[in-house]
## 1
Amino acid sequence: MAERSGSGVLSAPAAHAGHAGAHPAPRGFLRRYVFSTDHKVIGLQYLVTAMLMALVGGGLAALIRVQVAWPTLAVVSPETYLSVVTMHGTIMVFFVVSLALVSGFGNFLIPLQIGARDMAYPLLNALSYWTIVPGCLLMLLAFFVEGGAAAAGWTAYPPLSALAEAVPGSGLGQTLWLLAMALFIASFTMGGLNYITTILNCRAKGMTLMRMPLSVWMFFVSAVLGVLAFPPLTAAALMLLGDRHLGTSFFLPGGLVFGEEVLAHEGGTPLLFQHLFWFLGHPEVYVIVLPAVGIAFDVIAAHARRPPFGYRISVWATLLIAFLSMIVWGHHMYVSGMNPLVGEYFSIATVSITAPFSVLGINLIASLWRAKIRFTTAMVFALGIISVIGTGGLGGLYLGTSTSDIYFHDSYFVVGHFHLMIGVVTLMGTFAACYHWFPKMFGRLMDERLGKLHFWLTYVPMMAVFVLMHYQGLSGMLRRYYDHSMYAFQAEGIELARVISYFAFAAIAGQLVFLVNFSWSALRGRKASENPWEATSMEWNTASPAPHGNFADDPVARRGPYEYAPPGSRQDFAPQWTA
Amino acid sequence: MDGLSPARNERAAQTLLFAFLATVVMLFAGFTSAWLIRRTGSDWGRLQLPWLAYANTAVLALSSLTLERGRVAARGEGQAGAWRSLGGTLALGLVFLAGQVGLWRALSQHGAFVTSTPQGAFLFLLSAVHGLHLLGGLVALAWILHRRAAPRGVAVYWHFLGLAWLYVLGLLHLA
């Protein structure tokens, strides 16, 4: 259709004004830092918002650890404990990890790395951020309403989530949860659409798809997955709202009794919600894990001074993972009474993801072969990612197979596994990105000594917490229980729970080191040059911090993104932009 | 500062539109799977659609025709005719939405609506979601008319919503 532009008055260019970074540098504090349309400012806004939400999510984690390890203290009531667990999960998955890694670094990095001046639709980008702000506020507001915050788990299974009278948090708290999630989904979808459009249309001259850094590839695949997987959850949320407020029976079966009264619902099935939820829920894992893996590839290449092993294979493996991730949701529901043949299918499909995912893991490890490693903080976090993927992925094999999952389901084995994958891998990816790209954000370097301290206070305690949880699960300890000492078969696990809690407190304290380092370095850190890591990808072809409009001239990509140690060259790297 | 060339802007707009349509397809896919599961419930019956449902469908089809006429006219010399046709689409879109509200009223009078039958609940939800998307299309159309801009993207979106409504209607006919 492009060739028709210019024929007839209807194709006036005015129709497209405002697209594609064609906007002058804004003046005034509000336009520059608050209602900005600059992708870098928006990326930072997401990052800071995620940090603030992480304070809440982390605080809730501490509460959970106190309650589980010292149940007699009863720091929270049983009803509140359910709310605490629910809100910890929701806030961490959607409002911390998704915001920091996908929305934050996605925004910050994509245009810089593909040589664009901004996102394809800067205004849509700003709108996406300003949609998530009321989402965060509504989610937090839920703590202060009658009945408290939502208590149906981060998965919001009906009937707990569908009947306002089910538990205290099922009332207004659950409604606010649904509204906040609706805003999150709207914001995330706007962001995803913008990522896809930008990557496909705004790349610099010479920046072919196979010359994009792997982080951009992973952000792209993550955006496609998000855009395709969230709408069915939206459908489920709308039906849930119908069941809650309009009296429909999509998810509510007949014969439900509340108090003495038989409820009027008839014919619905709660399992339907589970299917729709996990159709999103499983791809969501890859929506947040893949960008962390992409960041690991970028960071390892720059600090190991050699190209990542198997670039093309990694791209194809990622695409295969994305496809498979959309057809395996049933492995979250093996104990829901599904037909064993269906379970068999989901087992085979799930375990087959191991193949392409192992390819990524092996490529990461092989990228260290004969490397000249510079052990910077960014690098040690990236190396940590490889280790956590290996450990966490191993547990996934047992949970992906129906025969073993039936035993492990709802135990701490599950909690340990998914925290390693979608908690530790993604957090370490976010940290690696922070330390590596900090110069482009603030023109300064983060403090390396504090950084190393942060790494050891993150990696060791977090691994201890979640690996030990696997053992608790093996011993039969179940998740979401308020007081395990009340059950003889679980009481023994409380000793271990205390050990885990001490490690968890250390991990939380470690994050305070990061917050101090981040704030101090942003203001007082050592000044960074344009390309302090001697890296090769396009974002280093501009000042530190990157100015509005990103590049002084239109950049041209003349080679791949990882030309380290090129043969016949005096310096050990050949940047993408040099002739 | 240089933005993208008009041709690239056009491509970007197309990518955005088709990616957005993919989300709408997935939304309706979600509803469809819910429909397929829910119809195995014990209380599933047959839904007799009132004539208004078909009248509304005809109005929507007509609106697609006028939009197509406007789109073709806008490419050539017949600019005034183009605006008339697009104005017609806008009016027919509003008539369709009003008709949908009428459909809800008719169904609720016949005791086949939100709480009374599962099909009624699906019809309400699907037509509401479809209507909201159409409302977005109307806003875009009004903006196009105001700016005298090319209606290409809106045309794709509008025809897509026409097909989506036919799909919903087909689903409702599946017992």
## 2
Amino acid sequence: MLDLLEYTIQRAVKLGAAQAEAFYLAENKLQTAIEKRQVKNCEKKFDSGVGLRVALKKKGGYSTGFSYFTDLTREAAEKIIPQTLRMASFKKPDKDFGSFQEKKLAAQVKKINDKAITRIEPEAVIDLANDLVKTASVDKKITTIGGRVNLSTGRIALANSLGVSGDYSFSRYNIGGFVVAQDAGSVAVGWDEHSDCFFDENAAYAVFKNASKNALSQLHAKAIKTEKMDLLIQPVALALLLGSTLTSAVRADNIQKSQSPFAGKLGQSVASDSLSIVDDGHVPQAFGSRPFDDEGFPSQTTKIIDKGRLRSFLHNTYTSSKDRVKSTGNSLRSMGGFGTRQRYSVEPQIGSTNIRLAAGIKSAEDSIDAVMSEVKNGVIAKGVIGAFTANPQSGEFSVALDLAYKVEKGRVSFPVKQAMIGGNIQDLLKNVSLLADDVTHIGWEHTSIITPTVLVKNVTVSG
Amino acid sequence: MKQAVDSGVEYADVRAEQIHSTTIRLTNDRFEQVVSGIDQGLGVRVLYGGAWGFSSTTSLETREVKKTVENALKTARAVSKAVKEKATVQHVKPVKDDIKVKTTQPVTKTGIDRKLKLLLHLSGVARKYSSKIIGANVAYDDSAGEKATVTSDGTKILAHPSRVIAYINAVAKEGEKITSCRERVGRIGGFELFDRVNADEVFELASKRAVGLLRAKPAPSGRFTVVVDPKLAGVFAHEAVGHGCEADGVISGESILEGKLMKKVGSDIVSILDDSTVQDGWGTEKYDDEGVPTRKRVLIEKGVLKGYILNKESAAKLGMEPNGGARAQNFSHRPIVRMSNTQIANGTYSFEEILEGMKHGVYLKGSRGGEVDPAKGTFQFNAEEAYLIKNGELATPLLDVSLSGLTLETLHNINAVGKDLDWAEGGCGKGGQTVPVGTGSPHVRITNALVGGRA
């Protein structure tokens, strides 16, 4: 594929581009759905395409143009090049545009491509899925079992006229179980999920076992009264909240537009003193790991928040050139916010790789039980509903808790019927008081959040 | 289709598309995305041995197309080995049709320079409204092309879809406070949309609303009588009721409306429809993606559940007629049961009559989106704007208010429905697919609703 990319950029330069860049993405997906205790669907999909970006030199700066094509031939490239140059000619020059990425050595990343996934046939996945249903059928009260087993493999190649040229393969394994239980008029839903670059059958069984356990333990949920209490936010719930607020708040483009609650706060205290957050593009088996970003900058580890202080934003080549800082390797071709699909048809934006939460020295070893024992009156929630309705510009959110349980005197006492929390990411980060040791990777498409359960004190929970 | 039918399938549908699209994202005066491209490809779905298989590809080389049909068969065979409950389809009378969308200015013949110029203008209009507007995030999407649907029943439909939408998220700032509001204009058709609607007015309204929110105070939490505007009530009809009426969910035991057909599920004044034939509806289509002619579907009539949204498979299962409810995002997705234009039908109250006599309540306006668990029947929606209602009048503006509840309880608690039906364009996500839908409603009043705020 690099041949077609090299050809395309050479032709674009010949036809007048000052710089040119071509990005290839191909994905093979095998998706299996379980509905009503049986495998309902199995799909095999192939998608590939090339995105071409050109820069035209004009008085006062460069202007860029972008197009994509899925017919991967030299003829199709020839057709798209003049159109892309024309688009660039219509746009005004942008003085902040520096250059496409200059050549740098790609980073070393481990275990992002499980070759075994390429070889897994539909039959094997369907056998597994049927076994998973059996695993979840542990009680007569369970009325419905659903879920998904998704496997994918892909390849990315990138070349530009400044000498960047490279490619890599990746794989994804994503599993979810969904169980409904009914008893004496009470209906309860339980679920669990797992994401990994590597295939792991045992993890799948654990997901379906947990989904059943969660459904059964949610039966006969009770209402709670609205009051201030302690909140234990489990990894999926926290990942949803951070994904809808923090990940856009630390994007340099949003900072430059003042559309972030962190604009102008670099160096200031924005979180609890014990909390550190990094963007780490190297974590083995994590969805955000890759040797280089979508413009060819090597992946790195960026300290976003260090012991409570805001240390860095996430940059691509454009925002780093505008701010005259180094890129952080966070160029991502994905549009529509956190966790949306990476596409060859999108101009480079900014996205986090793997967001990792780390506690200070004090509490990193605390087990979930030890953290829970600190809670006299509170709620623990595995998920939240409606996180994506958060306002990314202000960091404010209002969400319903999902798979929530009341915690009294350090122990889970009963399942909670309906509860909501409202607040903003700034207060949430400041009020995090303890981190447990159940660190979990929650991956979406080409990004992830890696976090344990956290304890947040004094939150208004409405029932 | 021939390759699939020759392999002995019970049913098959093939969809091939070539769609030209333009995507533009503009913040103030900087273009963050200007993308034009062609998406082409083919999706094959087969029913074999009572099991479904599906495969798709973006390559239209003969070899790749053959492999795609083989993959569809392979996945169906694999599923069929262990399938307990065999799927069947309700066959329909074959249709042959060639549909054109009326447009005087096709988007494919409208130069990119015109599109860029228009958006710069609209961004300017939004920013000129007030110096407090720090961001006009403007977006534009158009798509047009050809789409062929062929089924093993003999249906052959060639469609020429075309749609245009422009939207804004206006961001206002004063001191530390940041607020934002969205508005959009979209129609099926071409670039003539901007001659038909006053986009300037709509884009300015987003700024006006965002600036208005700067005065807003944190909302109280707890149970209130609420008045919900057409936008948010439309989202409620879609999320809380429409999803529950999707027959696939009903069959798989994931809907609270399962087994409730012809039963009372809401108050007498509530009627809810899903109608693919609404004039200028964002979810309007003549045929669904199984080639079935679409229609108006009555879901709830005067509080009684009257029907579901059906595709060929769920119709066979429930012994009903398919009603054109199968839609796919594009060729790379299988058709699943989806809504089109969902609405709460008009009632008899004026807005003033709805507010009349309310001592204390909350008025919720606009939507930042929502989520629903159809199995439990819980929902959560965020309003863009809200106001306290005091003695029948709108008082203090409120920030970040969400509405949560149980669908059935809420339907029974609707005690006034307005007569001011209004539509909005939206996108609905389900099973990893997004399709354009319309949502509509008049103002409605709901008692004992759970409002989540931060005060």
